[in-house]
Amino acid sequence: MPPAIRVRMSARAIDEPHRASSPLELLFDLTFVVAVAAATAQLAHDVADGHGLARLVLFLQVFFAIWWAWMNFTWFASSYDTDDVPYRLLTMVQMGGVLVLAAGVPAAAVHSDFRAVTIGYLIMRIALVAQWVRAGVEDAAGRRTALRYAVGITVMQAGWVLRLVLAETGALPSPAALPFFAVLVVLELAVPLWAERTRPTTWHPHHIAERYGLFTIILLGESVLAATRGVEGALEAARTSTPLVVMAVSGLVLLFALWWLYFLTPAGEGLGDRRHRSYLWGYGHYGLFAALAALGAGLEVAAEQTGHDVKASPLAICYAVAIPTAVFLVLLGVVHAPIADKPVPRPVAALGCAVVILLLPLAAAQAGVPAVVAAIAAACVVLTVLSVGAGGGGE
């Protein structure tokens, strides 16, 4: 069925039956595959060169830009997706902005050059503000909220452009760059809180849960891709070896276990019952998503080192896998706790598993990287089995 030429934009029903991600939303998500892949590949390069820790802050800054761009679109679409021609065209403009952002990821991650990222954001947010203005004009009930979003996003974008101008002209000293970035991040996160004080938007809980689940799958897929790049690098330097096979299998098992654990808690029902806690759940996913992206980089280097030497030590490589995995497990319990009566896995069990995982790299010098990664995967499998046995389900 062809899209309508134009539909009056009004808030969609909170309890709309059978609400699922649209083909346009799925296409929009694909633009982020490019951005995440670029960020993960750069972090893997930094880890292999022994600069992973030094470059971590830059990675987290770049990933925030990617994640927040996705968030802006996702929550608006859950409340106001009309799927008419103007909506589709403005979404296409946003996709173009994301691709410009993705093209700027390497420069931002290596040289702190956020020019392309800022320009991508500007393109994307011109379209996003237009969407919010349209919602404000056509939806009388949600007008104040929509216009607050439009104003807040516009002011914040001006802040990012100002930061770029100050950096380019040398008016922003290097020591002040990170604090300036942090202040803008806090203000960005405050815009939804301020805008929705007048009247909350009508986002659909099951739709939002599905959208977050799909982005989780995208990040897991990126980790598979990154690990595959590592295997390819190892194969270019040597033939198939036992350590390489162990790494490949262990990486797949680890990612499969994390996928299983994430989907054990039905988030849609919890979001529907506790809408006022959606900020804790939604914002908390930044850490979950960043951990998955960083894990992909760690797995890539761990696979690559089985074929040829890298500058990073076995201890550093193992921690590049262990730390993101541990962070993911801990945050999984923290994020789901506000919306679930009994989050699965239980936070105590997840924390215990995370502690074990963080201790395993200490054996890297004696056991080797593949053995440590296999042990990390085994620990996650045990946690998965215990969580399923405790009554974990899925949506």
Strand content: under 5%
Number of domains: 2
Report the top-level CATH class of the largest domain. Answer: Mainly Alpha
Order of helices and strands: HHHHHHHHHHHHHHH
**What class do helices, strands and sheet pairing give?**
mainly alpha
What would you note in describing this structure?
The chain has helices at 23-48, 52-80, 85-103, 105-111, 115-138, 143-169, 174-195, 205-237, 242-262, 267-273, 278-304, 314-336, 347-359, 364-367, 369-389. The chain is mainly alpha-helical. It has two domains: 23-195, no CATH class; 205-389, Up-down Bundle (I/LWEQ domain), CATH 1.20.1410. Helix 1 (23-48) runs antiparallel to helix 2, helix 3 runs antiparallel to helix 5 and helix 8 runs parallel beside helix 11 (278-304). The longest helix has 33 residues, at 205-237. It is globular. The two termini are 29 Å apart.
Task: Provide keyphrases for this structure.
395 residues; mainly alpha; I/LWEQ domain; 2 domains; 77% helix; globular
Summarize the structure in short.
The protein is an all-alpha fold. The protein has helices at residues 23-48, 52-80, 85-103, 105-111, 115-138, 143-169, 174-195, 205-237, 242-262, 267-273, 278-304, 314-336, 347-359, 364-367, 369-389. It contains 15 helices and no strands.
